[in-house]
Amino acid sequence: MPIKVSELLALDVVQRLRAKSNVMGALLVLHAWALILGSMALFAWWPSPFTFLLAVMVIGCRQLGLAILMHDAAHGLLFANRRMNDWVGSRLCAFPVFTSLDLYRPYHLKHHRFTQQADDPDLGLSAPFPISGQSLRRKIVRDLSGQTAYQRRGEQIRRALGNRELSTARRLANLWRAERGPFVVNLLLLGGLSLAGYWWLYPVLWLLPLATWYQLVSRIRNIAEHAVVPDNDDPLRNTRTTLINPLERLFIAPYWVNYHLEHHLFMFVPCWRLPQAHRAMVAAGWREQMEVQRGYRSVLQRAAARQHGDDRGEGPRPSVQHI
């Protein structure tokens, strides 16, 4: 059953939570790119197995961070100015990780409208759980080996090409329209690194993290948000918040994405205010009714609790990448 915001928090608290900030939006985008470029610079300056692994994990997590900031832009929350919100959300957040803000926005809003119900386009991400530990390990291997990225990217390209009955020229034109933004932005990123004398950082520390660590942390976050929740019909329990430590924030869940229950309850709250929303809910006495877990290890243990038999697959894949 839907729940009204006025039933959860006082109006003055809600008004404070909904405030947007152009400055904060700009700082978040700059922070993501600073960590990405800084990690590349660290490895270029001090190449070693340790700095390589560190860079892959930090960059892959910040690539997820760009997708999360695109998610905020899809809700009109990244910047108070709508034109700036959509321009930055597309060109500096979505396109670099081969995603479309325009395609994502209506899809994602439908997920909010029908959370964990039959019409939820993301239901296939949570419905198969719990699975066996063996199945989860196979999924992790596919993520880290690049198989998941290869499959997802192939699906994106096939959807962009359109119906096979169309002419080759028409299908290529469809592909160009769909992929023009990501192609141009990634070409600019490659060009910038080439001008700096480090073209090889693009395949090694941009595409590789995107094909490996980004896939894994996206899966972990997807599982944590809606898999094995207590009640698909209760808005306080069909979505999960996961309380995390600083290492999990650095390597798995950037920009407060772990406060997913608060995001579903208060879609108008920018990501950087979600911890405030969580504290307000606790102060208002809602903590015992909320689905909250501590740490991703706990969530994954619940998701991989099936003892016997093979997994039930992953269900239908969403038509747009879930964030």
Automatic annotation (TrEMBL):
Entry GO MF terms: sphingolipid delta-4 desaturase activity
Domain Fatty acid desaturase: 47-282
GO biological process: ceramide biosynthetic process
Keywords: Membrane, Transmembrane, Transmembrane helix
Spans through the membrane: 25-46, 52-74, 183-202
GO CC terms: membrane
Name this polypeptide is given: Fatty acid desaturase
Organism (species): Enhydrobacter aerosaccus
